[in-house]
Amino acid sequence: MTSQTRPEEKAGENTSRLHICFICPYIYGYLKPGSQKTVGGAERQQHLLATRFRKEGHHISFITFETEDDEYERIDGFNVWKTLPTTNDLTRTPEALIKLLRSVHRIDADVFYVRGNPPLCILSSYCCKMLGENLVYCVANDSNVELNNLARHHGVFRRTLPKLAYVDAIRRSDYVISQTDYQQRILNDVLGIRSTVVANAYTVPPRNKLLEMDERSHVLWVGSLDSEQKKPDRLIRLAEQLPHIEFVIVGWSQNKSYREKIRYEAEALSNVRFEGFVPPDNIDRYYRRAVAFVNTSEYEGFPNTFLEAWRYGVPVVSLNHTIDGVVSEQNVGLHSKTMDRMANHISMLWKNTDEASEMGRNGRQYLQENYSLDIVFERYACIFNNVVE
User: 218 CB contacts (<8 Å, ≥6 apart)?
Assistant: First the structure.
């Protein structure tokens, strides 16, 4: 612990403001861009929300993965506690529980918030229950509510007991947030758990930051290089079918063999540029120059990449996911359903820049009207205040 004033001593100075703690293992990559290569949409959303709450005068803390440095760090007005061991290793569960319990007790926030990460949901639920703290849990992916798919990301859920513990942890949360109507239905109809739908959010850049469609240079794919969910190999197959179109792949994986496989296959094609990991603060330039954004995922939650594309007037071409039908019903992109149709959709947008421009404009407008940070912040502020009251 540094010699700075303990953050929990400041929390009560202004009782009209909340102290919110985000329990977020991978947030450090957003707090210090470029410091980590494991950053994703869940972390982006929590950083956006935390930044907005801090702007409004609320007190913000983070609990993130432990490091060899000091356990506490002050970054951009946030209190960052680097005290969390891995939560996916059963052998380290007792250690993780004890350290998280100590951190929750020490921080003593008005609200603790966990997004996705079912093992962390279980540990946080136990800690908050034992200490009488408020916990808000937000579903981050469809696999978080589809019990037969839980093991896709967390092998421990191949067993029945951890699944039951996870469902019980969600039920013990003081408030549950789902991102889509589909997730809400599963929670309610299958698990008997009530939730409130709150979409993801994003800021919108000024219009003068956008390029005209005929100034753009590529079709873009962004995501984790995940063979089970994101399926970047499908993008490689599309590039093989469409040699006249330039593709860019931005993504990273801790799985070195799979990462190198995708890189090798991409670099073998003259029309594919493999960028690998790109820090969050540098990603906008790839969207800005994109004619279309491609999503090849087998399943999703609420893809931040869709919002990132619409910010810059980029239409979305999605194989499977539509955000409860938004992609197909609002003329903001195309729902392909099959790989052959996806190839046709990409080719059509590449040739027909007027159509691509119209869909991109619609996407940007829909984002402003439904997913702006102002709108989502107000919903979260209401939820957090209701939980505390």
Answer: 246, 247, 248, 273, 289, 290, 291
